[in-house]
Amino acid sequence: MCCKAQYWLIVGSVIGGLLAILGGILIPLGDKIISDEIDKEAVIEEGTIAYENWVVPGSPVYREFWVYEVLNPNGVLNAEKPILRQRGPYTYLVRHLPKANVTQNHNSTVSFWQPNEAIFQPSKSIGSEHDQYTVLNLAVAAAPALLPQYPALVNAFIRESNSSLFQKRSVRELLWGYIDPFLQKIPDALIKDKTTGVFYPYNNTADGPYTVYNGKDDIKKVAIIDRYRGERTLSYWMNDYCDMINGTDAASFPPFVDKSKPLYFFSSEICRSIYGVFEKEYVLKGIKLYRFELPQTALASPLENKDNYCYCTEMELSRNCTAAGVLDLRKCQNNKPIFLTLPHYLYASDFLLESVDGLKPVVEEHKTYVDVEPITGFTMHFSKRLQVNLFFQKQEKIHVLANLSSDFVFPVLWLNESATISDESADVFINSVTFPMKLLEIIQIVLLCIGFATFLPCSIALIVKSCKKSKGKHG
Q: Is 132 inside a domain boundary?
């Protein structure tokens, strides 16, 4: 009987030890299995999970707009501070079409165009896109910058067209374009296109071409932009550093995201690369995500962040490069005096906020961030928030600009472009990615626990029995 008990204790110890060893082996082996599977599915080529979510957005992307209505237009013309009120949101579906002209290249890259289309969403808006507000007259405000050598002529055409610095326009016209009566007066030799709008032209256009790494040779480079419009660098800024094209387009990132490092992405709309820093970890629809936020330092003045010196392109407006939070886009917008900030001048210099009434920056409402699933690098949620402003100055020879209280970086509108993974896509991701990883983790833990729970008691019992037997022989 004693021998039989000892036999089963030995068997229990051996089996427990094997199970514990197997569980231990599965930890690095499981990590290798997961890594290999992610490396395979993160490649941008037909048949992978990454490709399906890359070629067509896995979740619809919406762009909400808040228009700045000017409440005292006549007062502004007579040296009053502008009083503004945001009206919105007016929401459009902007990303739902598949990428166009997708071409797999021989150097482990893939090229494509990103089609642009905006479809109004009444159910997500406060009113019709035909709602009218008193807003900045884009053409009149931009004319002095576009025709600096013809102030008298500009003034005459403003009068002839019965235009002013402010006008009533519908949301649709302001966003997507309208034929401007002032521009119609200007000879074609000076300005040929008579249509203006903040995002004109947009519909039925495409951004690109982009060339990105597909990850087949090196998964650490997947989705990183190799070229934009055939070039590896931009030509808008003062040096090579600011002209670098870094990172991805923010739709996805290389797998195994390191939260201790900045996440770089390029946006053609802001004509530069930028970055987010890790802010928090949280769970969305059962998926663990890392949130990376655009930090204040990314838009800080060169005094606070010397890397931003090459984004300072104008001494007077930037107050000798001490201004923060404003980006001059004139060079990449055909000299149109467009300046970008975060909404309500978040993180910008005080003088910008103090130049108007009615704006109040709130970090939670106006910040930009991207939420990434850290294992795959897939973006599951994001909010890109920007404010479009026009720069114009007092002009003695242009009547509607002669009595302004100051020079203005004048807010026109702000937007929030965002997307959240759908419930259906979240379930697919959990079933195809998260669940297998969790299952493997559970198996590892169970094998280790059962192994140790079996091995330790049996081994202890064997040792005790051996000691007793040894004492019996010597006793």
A: yes
